[in-house]
Every structure is written in structure tokens, then in C-alpha cells.
Amino acid sequence: KAGVTQTPRYLIKTRGQQVTLSCSPISGHRSVSWYQQTPGQGLQFLFEYFSETQRNKGNFPGRFSGRQFSNSRSEMNVSTLELGDSALYLCASSLEGIRETQYFGPGTRLLVL
Amino acid sequence: GESVGLHLPTLSVQEGDNSIINCAYSNSASDYFIWYKQESGKGPQFIIDIRSNMDKRQGQRVTVLLNKTVKHLSLQIAATQPGDSAVYFCAENSGANSKLTFGKGITLSVRP
Questions:
Q1: List of residues 6+ apart from A106 with CB closer than 8 A
Q2: Under a CB-based contact definition with an 8 Å cutoff, are residues B59 and B50 in contact?
Q3: In 3-state terms, what secondary structure has residue A83?
Q4: Which one of A84, B17, B24, B35 is CB 3.0 to 4.6 Å from B47, fit for a cystine?
Q5: Is B111 on the interface with A (CB under 8 A)?
Q6: Region B17-37 average pLDDT
Q7: Which residues of B touch A38 (CB under 8 A)?
Q8: Distances in Å between the alpha carbon of A54 and those of A4, A90, B37?
């Protein structure tokens, strides 16, 4: 069974731009969660989607948004990029939610200049 | 994925010894806890989880201990191997509709 895939793997943007990251979960998994990882703040939960609905949300500004499609694939969008948004963005999938084994993708490394 | 950070605490152990990685959690309402391992260049990998109705759970070469009184979680790795070298994170959750909160991470370095 294929693992969680994320595209693109690397991305360079400039301040003020917006970016869309994509995540394809493991087949059959309906929960997709997004995380931001930085050296300073560590791993932080962004949001979780289940059956196309946002079920949980972390403490991030409204510039961070996401969605999930009927095939469970998910995208996250960051608008009006700031230098501090430079991070590794990780996606994880599980069958039903965050209170069970989640499988992480390799991440998308975003650099904002 | 890539390794986490430049200033994480480090635990150095001799190959073959047992390792104990500790984590203090903050939310007394948390009832689900997870340990993750992150190797350089990869995303985190689930190791083991435990719910608050238990104080100990064992997996293959790993044991998680939960002390709810002092809000402390530990991961014990038996017969540590070079392949165990990685950053280890604990995470806590207080319900299906709440977020997952991660600890800062600890680097485990295994000496040959």
C-alpha cells in the first residue's frame, strides 16, 4: 500500500504571495491532518479534516486554510505569506482521526523570501 | 521531512543499553498520548500510544509509562540500536474534537 504523498517537496515563495500544498492520504484513510514544523516552535497542529469537513483546528491565523476532497485528498493554503511561515509542512493520514495511528508524509519544505 | 531543530536536548546512550526518554505534558485533561520518532529527512513515525485508563503499555522493544499524577510520560527502549538514533516527540490529546499538542522533542544518539 502506498504511503502518504505530499507535493511539492520544496517550494520557494516571496512575502505576500500565496501557496497551496497537496496531500494524498493512504488509500482508505478518511482523516487528514496538517502540521507545521519549525526549529523554534517544533511540531504544531494546524487542522484536521474528516469526510470533507474540518473537525479540529490549531492556533493559527486565518491565513492558513485547508480543504478535503471526496477522495480524501487534502490541500492547505497559506495566503499573504510572511517570512515566519518558512517551515516544513507535514501531512498525516489515519482511518478515523488523530486518536489513532497516524502516518506522516515526507513533508513540503516552504521557504519564504 | 527533515530533522527538527538545532537546539533540542540530547540523550546519548551506548548501543545495547536501555534508553529512557521523558516527557512532561501540560494539560490535565489529556487522555491520549503518543510517541513519535523522526529520522533525518523523514516525517514522524508512530511508535506507540497509550490512553489514560492505562499506566503502562508495551510494544516491540518499547514501553510507554504514564504517570497522570505528575503529568509525566516516558518511553523506554530496550537494547538500543544505531537505528534508534532519531528525534523523539511525545504528543497529547484531550478529545476527538481537540488538537494534538507535541512536545519539543529529544534527540537520541546511539554510540557504537
A1: A6, A9, B1, B41, B42, B43
A2: no
A3: helix
A4: B35
A5: no
A6: 94
A7: 5
A8: 19, 17, 27
**Which of A10, A47, A99 best probes binding to B when mutated, by most B CB atoms within 10 angstroms?**
A99
Q: What is the pLDDT of residues A6-54, one digit of tens each?
A: 999 999 999 999 999 999 999 999 999 999 999 888 999 999 999 999 9
What is the pLDDT of chain A when averaged over all its residues? Answer: 95
Rounded CA-CA distance A44/A23 in Å is 17
Q: Cβ of B67: how many Cβ atoms within 10 Å?
A: 11
- CA–CA dist A102, A50 (Å, integer): 13
Residues B99, B95: Cα–Cα separation, whole Å = 8
Phi, psi angle pair for A94, to nearest 5°: -150, 170
Q: Is A109 on the interface with B (CB under 8 A)?
A: yes
The rounded percent of chain B whose pLDDT value lies above 90 is 80
Handedness of CA A91, B109, B60, B32 (dihedral sign): negative
Determine the 3-state secondary structure of A108 from DSSP: strand
* Inter-chain touch A43–B4, beta carbons under 8 Å: yes
Which grid coordinates belong to A30? 478518511
Q: What is the pLDDT of residue B7?
A: 61
**Confidence (pLDDT) at B3:** 34
User: What confidence category does residue B8 fall into, taking pLDDT thresholds of 50, 70 and 90?
Assistant: confident
A53, A43 in Cβ contact below 8 A? no
- pLDDT bucket at A81, cuts 50 / 70 / 90: very high
